[in-house]
Design goal:
C8orf32 fold, seven-stranded antiparallel beta sheet, 25 strands
Amino acid sequence: MKDARIVFTLMLALVMGCNTNTNQTKKETKRMAEMIPTVVTSDIEAGIKANIDKKVEEGNGYFHMESEGKELRLQLVRVHTEYLSNLGPRRHFACVDLADVSGDVYDVDFFLDGDPGSMNVTETTLHKLNGKPFYTWKQRKDKTWYRMPVQNASSDLLGVIEGTDKFEFQYEVTLPEIEASAKMWIPVPQSDRFQTVKLVTIDAPAEYQVLEEKSNGNSILYMELAPEHSGKQLKLVYDVERQEKQPYEEDSPPTKYLNPSLLMPVGDRFQILADSIIGSKRTEGTIMQARALYDYIIDNMRYIKAGKYGTGDAVYACDALTGNCTEFHSLFISLARSAGIPSRFAVGASIPSDRDEGGIDGYHCWAEFYAEGKWWPVDISEANKYTALATYYFGRHPANRIEFTRGRDLQIEPGPHSGPINFLAYPVMEIGDTPAFPKTFFSFKRLF
């Protein structure tokens, strides 16, 4: 009996000791967590910029890297704020665009350690060259990420969701300093046969109205602003269900889509170039002719966000053979219309397929051409990035996108002092008669 009491006493002591250690461990963990500073994306942005600035100073004005035996001399173009991530205690991720002296633009991934104001880069990797990736990212079940070679990646890792996609889309605008009366125009996406759009909430700093742009059937939110609205936010939240787009019939006549627009001329040099590209395919049908133009742009243009990019100027695209999605599709439309192929422009946002929420890297645009009684979707800039999907993007748009507006040279009343709107993705704003550029951010959350 005495031995039994001794054993019981020892077991009780051990249990109490374990509980004491557990409580101490919990308290220590909590204390350590409280000691780790809270990190926001602006801290990570400041951290990566400070590290790049230091390397640029050490490199006599350039950030030096090596790629396939070539010495790169790079300068910062921008930080992808939508991809800045806090990976855990004192562990962070940043992605930036750096331009080489040759004109090539590299997308570079960085991992950093440290606290706000004191972050150090621990790993640097070249992710993309002129928009074309060397690898993609795949997420594990535990929410961590790992690299995967592009050739081994499935379509969803290359930006494509087939069938149907459902997501919440947020469009946020932060107004600049306003010193006089101002006006602003913002796209309002509409439901059609390929997307069902429901406006869930709208938080606006002032009264607004929705204008109808009749030529292309667009809806545009219009707002008049004053100095007291400086720095305020406008936020629109939508629930979207989107269908993958394939060739489709439409009742409206296509002939108006042969006309030029201000930055997409028709004829002259574009006629000559289109004829030379199409060549013997002139007798092989409209689809083959359009495919020849499509392949020409993929083979000859480089996706580079530098110079006069983002305006959708077909003349610039034809001369520079560089640009973003607007240049790719504006050149295609000018060539197609010059060849007698009706074609049209649309703009919206591409929803990431490899994750289920977060920021979006700005707007995206695409085109359609008319052949054999149907409209054929194309996305040439994406086909240029992912050549394995070039066949897919000739005749399809994936489900993971939202369309804001169609057409170019949009005319509405009241309209901007500057004249017709080139295309409408980001807000068009004027303070007095001077253009202004409010900060705009897109984000999403996939719905299941």
